[in-house]
């Protein structure tokens, strides 16, 4: 990560920690106050657009979560007790074997 990207990232974290809206102007102000001179304005604009409408604290808390929640359990599965094993048995059916070129009598080197 370049110095410019790090500076803008830290500036965005400072604004998020203070509960302020992340804008390119505010990012640039913090970067200038930190005396980081080599940051081009395009970086602040890109970060501001990328983080627009997003909760940065929430993003940090969900790092590495995989992007999705676990599927919900069936509504009556826990209450009935006997319905869950039947559902598992249905899912354990062996998959049909797909036909391959070998089954058809020809291959790559025939």
UniProtKB/TrEMBL annotation:
Region described as Disordered: 67-110
Keywords recorded for this protein, A-Z: Ribonucleoprotein, Ribosomal protein
One Pfam family this sequence matches: Ribosomal_60s
CC terms in the record's Gene Ontology section: cytosolic large ribosomal subunit
BP term (GO), one: translational elongation
Biased composition (Basic and acidic residues): 87-96
The keyword Ribonucleoprotein is assigned to this record: yes
One function term, GO molecular function aspect: structural constituent of ribosome
Cleaved signal peptide residues: none
Lineage top rank: taxon: Eukaryota
Keyword check for Ribosomal protein: yes
Positions with biased composition (Low complexity): 70-86
Protein purpose: Plays an important role in the elongation step of protein synthesis.
Protein family per UniProt: Belongs to the eukaryotic ribosomal protein P1/P2 family.
Subunit text: P1 and P2 exist as dimers at the large ribosomal subunit.
HAMAP family with a match to the protein in the record: Ribosomal_L12_arch
PANTHER family from the UniProt entry: 60S ACIDIC RIBOSOMAL PROTEIN P1 (PTHR45696), LARGE RIBOSOMAL SUBUNIT PROTEIN P1 (PTHR45696:SF10)
Name under which the protein is recorded: Large ribosomal subunit protein P1
